[in-house]
């Protein structure tokens, strides 16, 4: 995590002030976009068809085409031709911006992922091009961007005939299992004409980590993930309010990475930010496509097909209640009905708890239930206080932990 990640607190802002900052941010971003250059590139990639850029009429709420990490403008070709989207990272976001170097990596990685998906039966947007201003590959557009197809349907809100959604998701998982890789990481290209290959892992869903890897074993992959968190905690960039407790939790996860490791050297594509609204559905809840592949990575089998956020009871997850939700069971049953062995990876919460971690909680009162849940799901029967006392002795030779303990003592 760079110092660029640290933004001003928004806790004291009312809705009007918060919205005004968003409007100002998007105004600055739009001012950087060379619309003529956008249309020239899009037309050249679509048989010379003329087009216009259509900006969402608002930047807040339904129809805004804005997410935590990206802003979108619609490219309309007319004559009934399908529209495209221009996806632009919010690198200048007052609350969610992230370093340009990371945005550039994520653009390349998402493009590579979408190009790979075009070779499969997984429904996803087609990708047409991308541009990076610092590399002079932006065609004069002025911002980092990704041009892709706009899918039909609307983001799933978790409601309706969920059985149909789980069935569709089971079919997609089964398709992804047909396309193994030999390394863990993320797909990547340098230029739009390159073939996707596995390179460094593209951050994580909390956008805390810089690209790292790739890895030839699942143990190395999981250990490196925990190590990045440990380094950030020791440096004061993560969990500064309770660094000792946080360090102990992630050191425990690092030591228990073997519980998630696979013996086989096969890895599969995983959509990391899969909280449900990544699924586009039609009126009958058929899945029309999957969007938001920005943080996707190639992961061990157990992680690729384990229970994740799409079927989680988020309140139970954040409250530290270790249990399988009704949706978890339904997804598992859908996989089993497919005759797939993938249902065997949905029996517990280990993978989900491992990667949710302490969830960037700002206070130990909020994080402690998550810590206890992690201990529980990985087989620890002790309560937190008893376990912490033992863990401090176990890891007393860890120099970074020593420094955190000493710093804490100096504050009192």
Q: Look at the helices and sheets and give the structural class.
A: alpha+beta
Largest sheet: 5 strands, antiparallel
* pLDDT averaged residue by residue: 91
User: Based on DSSP secondary structure assignment, what is the total number of beta strands?
Assistant: 12
Q: How are strands sequenced across the largest beta sheet? A: 1-2-3-5-4
* Count of helical stretches: 13
Task: Please write the string of helix (H) and strand (E) elements.
Answer: HHEEEHEEEHEEHHEEEEHHHHHHH
**Low-confidence spans: pLDDT under 50, at least 5 residues?**
1-10
Shape: globular
The CA-CA distance between the termini, in Å, is: 28 Å
Strand content: 5-15%
- Radius of gyration over all CA atoms, rounded: 22 Å
Helix content: 25-40%
Organism: Podospora didyma
InterPro entries: AGP_Transferase (IPR051678), Aminoglycoside_PTrfase (IPR002575), Kinase-like_dom_sf (IPR011009)
Protein name: Aminoglycoside phosphotransferase domain-containing protein
Give structural attributes.
12% strand; 12 strands; 38% helix; five-stranded antiparallel beta sheet; globular; three-stranded antiparallel beta sheet; disordered N terminus; 13 helices; single chain; 412 residues; alpha+beta
């Amino acid at each position: 995590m760079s110092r660029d990640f640290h933004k001003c607190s928004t806790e004291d802002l009312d809705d009007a002030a918060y919205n005004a900052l968003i409007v100002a941010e998007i105004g600055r971003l739009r001012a950087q976009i060379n619309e003529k250059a956008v249309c020239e590139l899009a037309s050249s990639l679509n048989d010379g068809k003329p087009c216009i850029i259509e900006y969402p009429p608002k930047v807040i709420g339904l129809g805004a085409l804005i997410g935590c990490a990206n802003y979108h403008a619609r490219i309309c070709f007319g004559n009934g031709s399908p529209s495209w989207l221009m996806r632009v990272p919010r690198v200048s976001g007052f609350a969610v911006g992230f370093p340009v170097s990371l945005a550039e990596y994520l653009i390349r990685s998402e493009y590579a992922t979408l190009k790979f998906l075009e070779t499969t039966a997984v429904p996803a947007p087609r990708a047409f091009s991308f541009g990076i201003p610092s590399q002079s590959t932006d065609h004069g557009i002025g911002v980092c961007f990704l041009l892709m197809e706009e899918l039909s349907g609307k983001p799933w809100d978790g409601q309706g005939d969920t059985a149909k959604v789980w069935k569709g998701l089971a079919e997609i998982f089964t398709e992804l299992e047909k396309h193994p890789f030999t390394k863990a990481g993320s797909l990547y290209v340098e230029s739009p004409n390159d073939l996707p290959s596995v390179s460094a892992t593209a951050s994580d869903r909390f956008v805390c980590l810089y690209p790292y890897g790739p890895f030839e074993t699942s143990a190395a992959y999981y250990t490196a993930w925990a190590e990045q968190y440990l380094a950030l905690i020791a440096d004061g960039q993560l969990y500064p309010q309770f660094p000792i407790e946080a360090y102990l939790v992630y050191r425990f996860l690092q030591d228990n990475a073997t519980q998630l490791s696979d013996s086989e050297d096969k890895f599969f594509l995983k959509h990391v930010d899969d909280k449900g609204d990544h699924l586009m559905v039609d009126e009958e809840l058929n899945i029309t496509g999957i969007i938001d592949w920005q943080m996707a990575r190639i992961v061990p089998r157990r992680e690729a097909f384990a229970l994740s956020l799409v079927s989680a009871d988020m309140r139970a997850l954040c409250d530290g209640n270790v249990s399988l939700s009704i949706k978890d069971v339904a997804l598992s049953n859908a996989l089993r009905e497919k005759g797939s062995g993938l249902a065997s990876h949905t029996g517990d919460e280990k993978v989900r708890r491992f990667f949710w971690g302490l969830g960037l909680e700002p206070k130990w009162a909020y994080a402690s239930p998550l810590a206890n849940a992690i201990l529980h799901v990985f087989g620890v029967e002790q309560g937190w206080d008893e376990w912490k006392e033992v863990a401090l002795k176990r890891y007393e030779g860890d120099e970074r932990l020593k420094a955190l303990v000493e710093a804490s003592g100096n504050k009192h």
